[in-house]
Amino acid sequence: MSEVVIVDSGGANLGSVRNALARLGVAATLTLDAQRIRRAARVLLPGVGAAAPVMRRLREAGLVEVLRTLQAPLLGICVGMQVLFERSEEGDVAGLGLLPGAVRRMVAAPGLRLPHMGWNRLRRERDSPLLDGLGDGTRMYFVHGYAAAAERADCVASVDYGARHCALVVRGNVAGVQFHPERSGAAGARLLSNFLAWQPT
Predict the structure, then answer these.
(1) Which is the catalytic residue, given 144, 155, 165, 182?
(2) Torsion of CA 191, 15, 172, 124, to 10 degrees
(3) Which of 8, 38, 99, 107 is deepest in the core (most CB within 10 A)?
């Protein structure tokens, strides 16, 4: 496979994502270099913490338009998924606009603490090659306090936590996962492997 690139968004999960890919036999490049990102066969955009610092880093590196016009498959992870949208309520920050709509603060429910942290089950909403080998009810590891609503045509899998939130979104060559595949064991490794083989239609 041609080069797989991880965008250096400054998040604490960069090393974990790189190691997860290494376990799949892929030596991914961590970079902010626009030309390298444009040439890549696959691009991953991880993120932890908040949307505003991630977007600031992308703007300062001159990568906003690069990511907006990317032709290769792109996978946003956690906050990396959230910045794919037009806007996040977290800091009222504009995102990349690759996905329509906004990411909103989750509402606490009786017996459920925020942020949503820990293992939870995916609800399969529609078929996607990214879910090959992952059945309905597959457990993934989540850490987040903001989310996109599941009631959208591009939501491929959702998760229930007080309300139903989008856990996996796909639109064209752009995909995003709210969970952390790099921390989700064999199921997360399968998702990453599916992404590496993914041919968007």
Answers:
(1) 182
(2) 30
(3) 99
Q: How many domains does the chain have?
A: 1
Residue 34: helix, strand or coil by DSSP? helix
Reduced to 3 DSSP states, what percent helix, strand and coil does the chain have, rounded to the nearest 5? 25, 35, 40
Q: Which of 116, 144, 165, 180 is catalytic?
A: 180
Which residue among 3, 60, 78, 86 is the active-site one? 78
Known catalytic residue: 180? yes
Q: Is 166 a catalytic residue?
A: no
Asked if 182 is an active-site residue, the reply is: yes
Domain that holds residue 174: 4-197
CATH number of the domain to which 143 belongs: 3.40.50.880
Closest alpha carbon to 192 in 49, 19, 54, 29: 19
Query: pTM of this prediction?
Result: 0.96
